[in-house]
């Protein structure tokens, strides 16, 4: 079974408690358990990680690159400004995920520094967006980057 990482960035550890009207009531732990099980169903061994520390996120991307592991990335706020995360992400095949429709929110959320190298972008599908991203990775997509 191929490995895949789901890497969640800042504040996503607060799922279920942070703005439930936007992000829902499912906790990060519940999401992680679901994604591991869902991944098995599509032929992926999924590891879910979350951090509020940008350097750790970049180290995980380097680890994925060295191991040839594809990723689902929800980089949170780093999506909109972190060229360091974008440079590290460019080393792997990844699908960018946003739980909410970022284009219907504040202006600063309308631009992603990650999108140009993504194998796919899923926006506004709620937590189901992660399932869609894993299905896309399981199909053997390549970003062409």
Automatic annotation (TrEMBL):
Active site: 23 (proton acceptor), 98 (proton donor)
Range of residues in the leader sequence: none
Keyword Flavoprotein attributed: no
Pathway(s) served: Metabolic intermediate biosynthesis; chorismate biosynthesis; chorismate from D-erythrose 4-phosphate and phosphoenolpyruvate: step 3/7
CDD domains in alphabetical order: DHQase_II
Coiled coil: none
Gene3D superfamilies named in the record: Dehydroquinase, class II (3.40.50.9100)
Reaction catalysis annotation: 3-dehydroquinate = 3-dehydroshikimate + H2O
EC number(s) per entry: 4.2.1.10
Name of the molecule in the record: 3-dehydroquinate dehydratase
Record organism: Arachnia rubra
Lineage, top ranks: Bacteria, Bacillati, Actinomycetota, Actinomycetes, Propionibacteriales
Gene from which this protein is expressed: aroQ
